[in-house]
Amino acid sequence: MKLTDEERRALPATHPDWELDSELIRRTFQFGGFTESVAFVVRVGFLAEQADHHPDIDIRWNKVTLVLSTHSENALTEKDTLLATAIDALV
Q1: What is the pLDDT of residues 30-55, one digit of tens each?
Q2: CATH architecture type of domain 5-88
């Protein structure tokens, strides 16, 4: 189910490190190098599989950008905010 307007307005407070961009949220993480970036992506992959909800992932040596949106809804949903919370707990 799509996030309500109230839930969308609360995103900066509940997920301050994530950037809201229309119907997606995005966050870039920085690490010491490529190996740490890939290890982080593997941990995110396990979370995503467990949640049956998969982010778009871009790896650039020591930076990993994750984009969350519920493609089947073409919108942000609770799935996105729950996975963002779980990902935040990894760092």
Answers
A1: 999 999 999 999 999 999 999 999 99
A2: 2-Layer Sandwich (3.30)
